User: Fold this.
Amino acid sequence: MMNYCADERKKRKREPNKHLIQDSQYRNENEFQLEIQEAIEYLAEPFQMVIRLRYLEDLKLKDIAIIMSCPENTIKTWLTKSLKLLRQYWDERGGKEHV
Assistant:
């Protein structure tokens, strides 16, 4: 019985209770996602694609290199540069608290 209770408690910690989350938190999350999309669109096309494939599609660098027909080191360079540009963009817009 004690193990069952401990397991249930662990489950509840892992699964947020959506009924307790207010609408404003959902709105803030949606607004944040829109801001991220806007920031990604600020980048040049190859940088956008690298960011989307890596972080939205969760692909490995090797797979991205194959898709984009580029050496893996080029993908690494583009990823580093695009993240730097996103940070600059975010800082200029006053979004430091999210980074």
